[in-house]
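Tokens as discussed.
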């Protein structure tokens, strides 16, 4: 089923060791989420989602996070990317968070939150790390969990991105997670500036928080 990249993900699911008696249930969930993504997304967007899932899976293995959650988040993070904006807003606001200034200005920034609502509503997912990782994969937020950092990074550096050469990914994959996240976030902020745009307040606040955390870990040195 699906494209070659999704078939690769299916093999990963089959081979992944999942503790307890939940493997069948989790494997079925991930495959069902993948099937939904295949239906609701264009071929190009679906293949991007599969690459994000695979990149996030690899990062979870490196950083000791639960890897099957990365597959789920990667496949679903853009569920609502291509739906009409009025529907996107209506879905997103069901999470009760209201809209930030950036989201009011650009409705498409709500697609992650809308996707998280779909995961909760349509698949019964209540794991806050999964839901937050999907909801905030575009702008990030201060205090985002490790899984959220990984999905944010994977979305920006998956192999389909023009800057994402093997050398580029290899360098980033060697970094500690906070340093990796900050590097990718700062690159994104700089890219926006180069286009005459300013990053959202949420992203800037997150970058400051990551820098402060990094500074504490290095004893205040750079």
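Sequence:
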């Amino acid at each position: 089923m699906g494209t070659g990249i999704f078939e690769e993900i299916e093999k990963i699911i089959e081979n992944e060791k999942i503790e307890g008696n939940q493997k069948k249930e989790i494997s079925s969930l991930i495959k069902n989420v993948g099937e939904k993504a295949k239906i609701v997304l264009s071929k190009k967007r679906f293949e991007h989602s599969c690459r994000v899932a695979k990149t996030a899976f690899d990062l979870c293995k490196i950083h000791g996070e639960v890897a099957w959650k990365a597959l789920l988040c990667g496949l679903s993070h853009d569920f609502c990317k291509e739906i009409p904006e009025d529907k996107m807003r209506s879905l997103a606001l069901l999470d009760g968070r209201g809209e930030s200034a950036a989201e009011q200005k650009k409705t498409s920034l709500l697609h992650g939150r809308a996707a998280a609502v779909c995961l909760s509503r349509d698949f019964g997912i209540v794991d806050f790390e999964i839901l937050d990782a999907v909801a905030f994969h575009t702008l990030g937020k201060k205090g985002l969990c490790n899984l959220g950092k990984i999905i944010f990074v994977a979305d920006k550096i998956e192999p389909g991105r023009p800057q994402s050469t093997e050398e580029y990914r290899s360098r980033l994959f060697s970094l500690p997670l906070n340093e990796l996240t900050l590097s990718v976030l700062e690159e994104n902020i700089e890219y926006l500036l180069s286009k005459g745009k300013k990053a959202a307040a949420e992203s800037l606040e997150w970058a400051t928080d990551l820098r402060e955390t990094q500074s504490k870990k290095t004893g205040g040195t750079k």
